[in-house]
Design goal:
alpha+beta, four-stranded mixed sheet
């Protein structure tokens, strides 16, 4: 009940006030004109895919649709700000390799050494750059639809765990995560 009343109240609040403003960089990945055929003809609208991030481990993705491009962009950015998640970034790259998917798109994300840069297509690059990752190798497998690739990349970044998190899960030290658990040799 409390959630329902909270949502009703927020409808009357201006769009800009619904999400508290933080310093996020915004990027529009794609603007597509879509048509819906109805009995009276065709209804035109625009679909926008947008990404927001603070270039320091936080990133969000959103999709907005409206009859006018500026309104669609505003909707997409609002949704992106609402979906912001924390991403594990170590030495300007990701902590480990991950394969992520969304619908028919799969994305392989691999950590890279310093100076490699971002090897990715436009949709994946936007998500990764705004997350604050500067060195990464990616490969798009399956469908290369920009929406699905951006969402697959977002899913992959959400799956990442830092070495501290793995150490806590296994009840070992962070050093043992990298070096392996020392076992005593029986003689």
């Amino acid at each position: 009940m409390a959630n329902e009343t909270r949502h009703r109240r927020s409808r009357n609040v201006p769009v800009e006030k619904q999400v508290e403003e933080q310093e996020f960089e915004e990027r529009v990945v794609q603007i597509t004109r879509v048509t819906k055929v109805v009995s009276g003809g065709k209804n035109l609208s625009f679909r926008v895919v947008a990404v927001v991030g603070n270039m320091d481990g936080k990133v969000g993705i959103g999709i907005g649709s409206a009859r006018e491009v500026p309104i669609a962009i505003r909707k997409a950015l609002l949704e992106a700000r609402k979906s912001v998640v924390e991403v594990s970034v170590i030495n300007e790259t990701i902590p480990h390799e991950v394969m992520a998917r969304h619908d028919a798109s799969k994305v392989l994300l691999k950590p890279a050494g310093p100076g490699t840069g971002i090897i990715a297509n436009a949709a994946v690059r936007a998500v990764v750059e705004l997350a604050g990752i500067k060195n990464i190798l990616t490969k798009a497998l399956g469908s290369t639809n920009a929406v699905n690739l951006a969402r697959a990349t977002f899913n992959g970044l959400r799956e990442l765990k830092s070495p501290k998190e793995y150490a806590k899960l296994r009840d070992i030290s962070e050093k043992e995560v990298f070096k392996g658990v020392a076992r005593e040799v029986e003689q």
